[in-house]
Design a protein that fits this description.
Number of helices of chain A: 5
Distance between the termini of chain B: 49 Å
Radius of gyration of chain A: 17 Å
Shape of chain A: globular
CATH class of the largest domain in chain B: Alpha Beta
CATH architecture of the largest domain in chain B: 3-Layer(aba) Sandwich
Order of helices and strands of chain A: HHHEEHH
Number of strands of chain B: 14
Structural class of chain A: mainly alpha
Oligomer: heterodimer
Order of helices and strands of chain B: EEEHEEHEHHHEHEHEEHEHEEHEH
CATH superfamily of the largest domain in chain B: P-loop containing nucleotide triphosphate hydrolases
CATH class of the largest domain in chain A: Mainly Alpha
Number of domains of chain A: 2
CATH superfamily of the largest domain in chain A: Winged helix-like DNA-binding domain superfamily/Winged helix DNA-binding domain
Helix content of chain A: 40-55%
Radius of gyration of chain B: 23 Å
Largest sheet of chain B: 6 strands, mixed
Chain lengths: 128, 301
């Protein structure tokens, strides 16, 4: 379920956070679904349990997940997901990609075409 | 929690560890880095209660370590060279450890057997290779169920499969029993993958001790091409630049600060190219050591 790139410069806890956010956004992890325990994930990925703990803590602080003492961590209900933060981060990324696309000669209609394509493909299989 | 307060250790006139203070939290994996001869092994031996500090205090949960068997029962130290009694097998060594450590778990020793399957219980340890002896020491150490595991260059000499195995075992100890692990190594990649806290030593002093992720968020590598040369000077004045390199029109900077701070300053000038990369531990190590006056000398032979 989780693939980490240990060669990446990005800290592992950030990679984990991004991965889990992605799984939540795409609905692979459903609201109120339980996340793997820190112990299980640590053993599965060979990652320091404190790092996983940290990723879970940050995700909880941002409102993506909630924890129940003694039970574990769960995905927050959809209405409680922090859309503002996601939107802001997405806006930045899009802006950067748009700038590159414009440089490569994409026109406004090309972009619109892509937008429509994304709308139609929504919920389907994603490819990069 | 492990605490060193203004600890010094001197060998004749030479300070191996000088006025060093350090806290290591329970349940963390602490990586100790440093130049050769920085005093890492001396520090580990102070933690393990092998050396008595000349000045200052070394405590585990508030109890002195040196010559205090009640505290030392909870500590296992693996030296950089495996040491066994002459002509012994792992079974005989296990019996010895069992007689020393009250927390020794025979059950754990048996549980771990499949992980160290290449070690024959009846074979003499001194006839085994360095890597297998390493494995044997780790097997014995984990069977003692200590609260504090001190490992001096533990991964060296292990093959990749065993490395992963050992890491997994250590992580389980940390996750399930809150064991504290202190590791020294020169293999920065390994430390980066394993540890959550790191300390960097140089000439008996601790240059820094931080959470690894904080350390990485605190220093960045930036590649930038300005629209105008004058912009560079304007930017330089506002930033804490550790290192700078210019190749053609693209400059590479190592800058202290958060992503937000740094990008805010650069963005004002709308550079042609602007990339901000997190640092690897190796880069951090090299630049921090450079700051302390220890760097690669430009010698050509």
């Amino acid at each position: 379920m989780f693939e980490l790139d240990i060669r990446s410069r990005k800290p592992i806890y950030e990679q984990l956070m991004d991965k889990i956010k992605e799984l939540i956004v795409y609905g692979i992890l459903k609201p109120d679904e339980q996340l793997p325990s820190v112990r299980a994930l640590s053993a599965q990925l060979t990652v320091n349990p404190n790092t996983i703990q940290k990723a879970y803590r940050e995700l909880e602080r941002d409102g993506y997940i909630y924890s129940q003492p003694g039970k574990g961590s769960f995905v927050s209900p959809a209405e409680q997901q922090p859309q503002d933060i996601q939107r802001e981060a997405m806006r930045e990324q899009l802006l950067k990609l748009f700038a590159e696309a414009i440089y490569l000669g994409f026109t406004q209609s090309d972009m619109e075409k892509l937008y429509r394509q994304a709308m139609e493909g929504k919920g389907g299989v994603q490819d990069d | 929690m492990i605490k060193l307060e203004h600890t010094s250790k001197r060998f004749e006139e030479e300070y191996a560890v000088e006025d060093l203070s350090l806290n290591i939290h329970k349940g963390s994996i602490f990586g100790l880095l440093g130049s050769n001869g920085a005093g890492k092994t001396t520090l580990l031996k102070l933690l393990a209660g092998i050396y008595s500090p000349d000045q200052g205090k070394v405590t585990l949960d508030g109890q002195t370590v040196y010559e205090n068997p009640a505290t030392k029962q909870n500590i296992v130290f693996l030296a950089d060279r495996p040491a066994f009694f002459a002509q012994t097998t792992i079974r005989q060594m296990a019996n010895f450890y069992r007689s020393i450590y009250p927390t020794w778990s025979e059950e754990r020793f048996k549980q771990l057997a499949p992980a160290f399957q290449s070690i024959d219980l009846k074979r003499k340890l001194h006839r085994m290779s360095k890597g297998m002896q390493r494995q044997a020491t780790l097997w014995l150490a984990l069977s003692c169920k200590p609260q504090l595991l001190i490992l001096d260059e533990p991964i060296d000499g292990l093959d990749p499969v065993m490395r992963r195995q050992v890491k997994n075992l250590l992580f389980q100890e940390v996750a399930e029993h809150g064991v504290t692990v202190v590791i020294s190594s020169h293999n920065l990649r390994e430390i980066e993958d394993m540890c959550d806290h790191v300390g960097i030593m140089h000439e008996g002093k601790l240059l820094m001790s931080r959470e690894l992720d904080d350390l990485k968020l605190d220093m960045h590598k930036i590649q930038v091409a300005f629209r105008d040369e004058r912009h560079e000077q304007a930017v330089s004045g506002l930033l804490d630049i550790v290192h700078k390199e210019q190749r053609g029109s693209v400059g590479t900077y190592i800058i202290k600060g958060t992503v937000e701070q740094i990008s805010e300053i650069f963005r004002v000038y709308e550079p042609y190219v602007f990339d901000i990369l997190p640092m690897t531990l190796e880069e951090i190590f090299i630049y921090e050591m450079g700051d302390a006056g220890y760097d690669v000398q430009p010698i050509l032979l």
